[in-house]
Amino acid sequence: MNNIELDPSQPSTYLANEVQTQLYAQAGYLDTQEYYHTPPTFVRQPLNYHLYTQLPYLPYGSASQSKPPSHRFFMSDTLREDLQRRSEAIYSLTPRYPSNEKPLPEELHVYHSLVPLEPSGPGSGTSSPGGSAYLASAGGFYPHPSGSGGGDGKDGRDSREQLRRKWFAGFSSMVYKATNREDGSLVVLRRIEGFRLMQESAFGGIEAWRKIKHPNIVSLREAFTTRAFGDHSLVFAYDYHPTAQTLYNLHFASDAHPSGASRPPRNARYGRGGHAQRDSGSNGSVQNHVEESIMWSYVIQIANAMKEVHDQGLALRSLDVTKVLVTGKNRVRINCCGIFDVLSYDPRHVNIEALQQDDLINFGRLVFALCCHSVAPVTNLTKALEVLSRHYSPDMKNVALFLISKPAPGKVIDQLLEMFGTRLLTEMNALQNYADQLEGELMSELENGRLVRLMSKMGFINERPDFNHELRWSETGDRYIISLFRDYVFHQVDETQKPVVNITHVIACLNKLDTGSDERIMLVSRDEQTCLVVSYKEIKACIDSAFSELARPDCQGFCDDHSCLRGDF
Ligand SMILES: Nc1ncnc2c1ncn2[C@@H]1O[C@H](COP(=O)(O)OP(=O)(O)OP(=O)(O)O)[C@@H](O)[C@H]1O
Hints:
Homodimer. Forms a heterotrimer with a catalytic subunit PAN2 to form the poly(A)-nuclease (PAN) deadenylation complex. Interacts (via PAM-2 motif) with poly(A)-binding protein PAB1 (via PABC domain), conferring substrate specificity of the enzyme complex. By secondary structure, the protein is an alpha+beta fold. The chain is about 35% helix and about 10% strand. The protein has 18 helices and 13 strands. The chain has helices at about 10-25, 30-35, 75-90, 160-165, 205-210, 245-250, 290-310, 340-345, 350-370, 380-390, 395-405, 415-420, 425-445, 450-460, 480-490, 505-515, 535-550, 565; strands at about 105-110, 110-115, 175-180, 185-190, 220-225, 235-240, 245, 275-280, 285-290, 325, 330-335, 520-525, 530-535. The strands form four sheets. The protein has a six-stranded antiparallel sheet with strand order 1-2-3-4-6-5. It has a three-stranded antiparallel sheet with strand order 7-10-11. The protein has a two-stranded antiparallel sheet with strand order 8-9. α14 (about 450-460) packs across α16. The longest helix has 23 residues, at about 425-445. The radius of gyration is 32 Å and the shape is elongated. The two termini are about 35 Å apart. The protein binds adenosine-5'-triphosphate.
């Protein structure tokens, strides 16, 4: 090393690279002639000598590797956008809707920071009394008593108000996001306004619902009464699923839900296509319908949830396009479970078999609604089946017919599961493919947490104004090497003095640092008066020693679990 002379007229990086190249050339790694012909700003080494993921070599520009190598360290843009939207929803404290409500209580039971998830005020909630609009009929299926509608896709939006009326036995409801003060978790609080609980025993069923943990059911956490809103309200706390939308919002609302919630674009975001297709019906009108593969996914997931609930001796009682939430890739979760058990509590007249039969019929209505793109109740079965058959297979038609058929002793959820046959395998394949896809995305981010820790350590050390009464602590001793290394990683310039902004270089350097590679690099000071040749292993030791000097006295909250004291920060 000593025989290499420094030329002060050359930029430091160039010198560093020149020296480094000579070192590599001496070690037989490089063809120096070729190197001098087109000098790169630094030499990349393959990362195959450490324990972390070795990515397959794919030449940049080939069909299978159309992104620059650094992109392989990050998840895809679509997934990132989706997760960022969720993160934004989690942290947002600003209501998305103008509210004409009185100020919300600052604290409610163990919850605080209430944010409405839907607009408030007349006409926006479930205010009109009227109870359930769906009544039993003596016929072969359950028509709607109003006699209107035929599932032909024309009157879906008009019927939205009718649909609202039946909800929560005529009581208005409001939905808020809130934070649990005890564990910081987010919940959705559904407030049933103006409901006076007459018997405490009405809460008896809540415990059974709390025990149900199912991937297709929004978990109920607790229920309580409150006067914090200035009335008698009943509140149900559920798990919060950021950016969740109802099936209604997703498939029926045009640009906005009647309640004001906006809808994301319908086009394909994931492998199996979007949520709905648009095409021209035979009469030339534009119709929306959910893709058959997505319909099967919905049907199978809802049936799965219903099986769990019925097996526990409960009934959903709330199955409807406005009470099924969709998150991520066609994942559905049944919402509002347990509410009717409290609202319509009557221990003398509870007939769980009848309620479970109602669940199946409500399921049938939901299938017709989605397939025919109409929330209008099915009053003309022939017409509805005709619309359904236009877009869906006979199997889907059979499922819809089975569900909407009148109650019978053999009509149980297990029978529906048998009808699915190999469709279950298709759903399983889709789930496993999606899991593979997500694992692949996760792999690309695997190293990033580790590198952030490393950069945090360097950030704690570099440029620290003073420490332990030492005014130039960060520029002296071992810390000087760390600051030179920081320049080597982040502040290199090329031979024309242009900044080298190459994240692949940063990642390669940090990986070598993290593993303590024996590879040696030349560090040159900014005034080019000092030149040090050190190995990554030595730099790593400097960082560890400087960081433990900072962290050990009392930890000072650099880490949550004192892992910095254990040296694994
Ligand atoms: N558990 C939850 N997690 C996240 N968001 C939720 C949750 N429950 C409801 N939401 C959001 O709150 C909004 C309002 O929910 P709600 O069940 O009242 O739907 P709605 O379509 O407005 O029905 P309704 O006509 O009965 O008011 C939904 O559109 C959904 O975006």
